[in-house]
Request: fold
Amino acid sequence: MATPIVLFDIDLTLIRTGGAGQRAMNRAALDLYGRDGLFDKLEFAGRTDPAIIRDALQGRLGLDGRWPHEYPRFLSRYLALLEEELTRSAGVTLPGVISLLEALRADGTVRLGLATGNVRAGARLKLRAHALWDRFEDGGFADDSEDRAVLTRVARRRLGGGPAVVVGDSVHDVTAGHAAGARVLAVATGGHSVVALAEAGADSVLPDLGDVERSCGELWRLLGAS
Ligand SMILES: [Mg+2]
Reply:
């Protein structure tokens, strides 16, 4: 049987960037289009970068026909500014994350990957800022698909196709994980409550990953049942 996989979401599951991503998007829009606060009050939680950028550039600026040209241009400006914003921002690694990753690595019976709405280059910048990037083998990213379910399936495939658990903080992690044939351990460290995550159908919900023994126990339970 293929080796089991644990796929982690990044924002508000592993780390909090202190708003660096949104600030970098707003600055990119100001630089390129002279629009201040273009990304204010847009829904970010659990969504992919291209979906968020599409809302802003097509929905708010009306750049419909120019999207194939503007998206890569916007993305490269965003990534340059993200790097700058991450160095200025007081981000944190969330409680229990490092201990949990260490426990899973020491156990040696699961493969660790990412399933994130960030593009790969953005994920690398965010996780490098917290010395976490090298702890994951590979993953699924927003470059693979604007659809979180699709990128989660890609992540599974890249990590050998074994039984998988997705760990994430939003209802989108729950629905995408299930659509990709994974079980879902949800953590209420983002915008969605324990109740909302349970109602979305998460197979297990924890307030956070702070209790490593409990987090590992839930992961083994879900992998055993997948
Ligand atoms: Mg998240």
